Amino acid sequence: MIMQLDDVVELCVDFLLENVSIFTIKRLYELEHETECVRLAKRIQEYEINHFYKISREDFFLRFSAKRLKALVESDNLNVNSEEDALDAVERWFNHNVSDRRSSLPELMSCLRLTNFDVTLLMTRVKPLPGCETLAYKAMSWICEPLSRTMIYLKYIEPRKGLSGNWRTKALMAIQTECEDSNHGCIYRFNKRKDTWVQWDKITINPMSFETILVENDLYFIGGKIDHEAIKDVNRWNLNTKTWKRLPDMHKARYWSSVAELDEKIYVMGGLANLVKVSQSVEVYTKTCGWKEVCGLITPRYGARAVTLNGKIYLIGGHCEGDLKAVESYDPNTDKWTACAPLLREHYLPGVS
Predict the structure, then answer these.
(1) Which of 3, 44, 64, 301 has its CA 20 to 30 A from that of 219?
(2) How many other C-beta atoms are found inside a 10 Å radius of the C-beta of residue 164?
(3) Highest CATH level, class, for 204-340
């Protein structure tokens, strides 16, 4: 009989949560309080985690207890577009009742992934909060002094699961590849809350006209030129730690090449070998084997763009003794390039997706 009653409770809870919305969840809070049903409380918390961005903007969110909010912001599955969304929510909750919530704030802030913020944000938004100065300094030290990380205790240093995969779906980045005044550009990130671009990090490598590609949490900087000379250099910048690592050189120097990622492999195609020589070379990189050369392009080109579809790489447009209409596809299973139907008009540096 007890098992049957449990089954009925579970069915009722499932029905309630399957039909809940931001507008009706307030009634579920009342029901949770009246029944003290553990199963219902757990399912409501799952709903809050999955819909945190919307819930944190509702008035009833401001009445959450510190314990309830802590259970949400420390969750690895918290559904936010960026860690800044979680910070916004904690600040909004705190500012609703500063005097009563001052003592709870440091513990809540320690549940955020502080090392995912840049130093400027830590200085301007985290450090001024009551009781959070030490947390801010620890996070800044962790970011700026990699060798000291083993001596710095922070509750969380890894990004949440929802933010640790494909960053392209979570934030916009812009990488400065050409600089008139210096060989060092910047990496910028779009701040959705302020509708503006902010500097994320300095590019500390020397080349210009390199290509970039994002694979998981790493941004690869491939080739480029220094003093008009093509180079083979490859560097990697980690989004979480903001640290650089030099990788094995390519076999061929090139700049203004095309890059694509397919099946956890990075392909680099064409480019300029020098001011007059257009490259036909194609290389592929894996973490275990480094670089190796594969079948060259049908049409040598630079300033083309590459996109992947159905297990193949498509190389589109570019320039070689004039802008190109030419399109070709690469099948890694056969190591072969095949000509495709040309574009209707020539395109140099086209936008593709």
Answers:
(1) 301
(2) 17
(3) mainly beta
